[in-house]
Every structure is written in structure tokens, then in C-alpha cells.
Amino acid sequence: MKAPSFAEPTERSYERVISMDAQAEPKVVLVDDDNDVRAITADILEEAGFDVLQAARAEAALDILATNRDVKVLITDVRMPGPMNGYDLALKARERWPSLEIMFVSGFGLPERHQLYFDCLLVSKPFDPDYLVSQVRGLAERAA
């Protein structure tokens, strides 16, 4: 039996490519005005296989969402400078993209669920990286 070479793909190598594609994580938009927090959070999600698009302001996040129709999850800080905070961003995003799943993260406390106008996930900072990844995966599966 001849050993396969790099020039001769085997059935097994073909199956491996297919299975890696099937497990590709969806795109998420991460919005936080704190550059360090955003960079660390993006690293956590990227190491878990997510395609992370980052924004420092709500307005930039809306632009990203408008040009990336395949985003499944919006992760946004609550308090941000500018004319829109995280709640304003989420309301506008949900209005334009109803199937978009939303996660709020905040180090300053979160609202009671009954104060929100739509279903979303609320996560307090600091968060456990494994918890964050599992919650984002759950939201992405729900959006699919």
C-alpha cells in the first residue's frame, strides 16, 4: 500500500476539512469603549473560534452590523460615551435585525430583566472566560 503524499489528498483529509467547516463559529460584534477590556474579551472569544468584529462606540457597531449580515450575536457594554449607550444600540439593532441575539455586559450593574423591552442575556463584569464563551455559543445557536 502506497503512503499518501501531500499531492494526493485522502478521503480522511477531505472529511477533516468538511468537519472543520461545519464547526465554524459565527460572527459576533463586540462593543466596549474600554480598549483593554475589549481586547481581552475579543482574545477570549477568538481563542474559542469566534470571528469577532470590534467597535469602541455604538455608532460604529451599527455600521459593522449593516455591512456584515451574517453576524449572529451583539455583545455590548452598557455605559459608553456618545449619543448612544448600549441599550440604545441594542434597541436600534434589534429593530433592524430582529433575529440578532444580544448580550449586555457591565461592571456597573445591570437592569432587572422586566425593565428590558426584549429578550437578551445580562452578564456582569468581571466574568469567567469559560462562562462567557458558553453563553455566546448558546446565543449563536439560538440565532441560527
TrEMBL record:
UniProt modified residues of type 4-aspartylphosphate: 77
Keywords attached to this Swiss-Prot or TrEMBL record, sorted alphabetically, are: Phosphoprotein
List the Pfam families. Response_reg (PF00072)
Record keyword Nucleotidyltransferase present = no
**Superkingdom, natural source:** Bacteria
For the Response regulatory domain, which residue ranges apply?
Answer: 27-140
Q: Cross-referenced PANTHER family, in alphabetical order?
A: STRESS RESPONSE REGULATOR PROTEIN 1, TWO-COMPONENT RESPONSE REGULATOR
Instruction: Write the protein's name.
Output: Response regulatory domain-containing protein
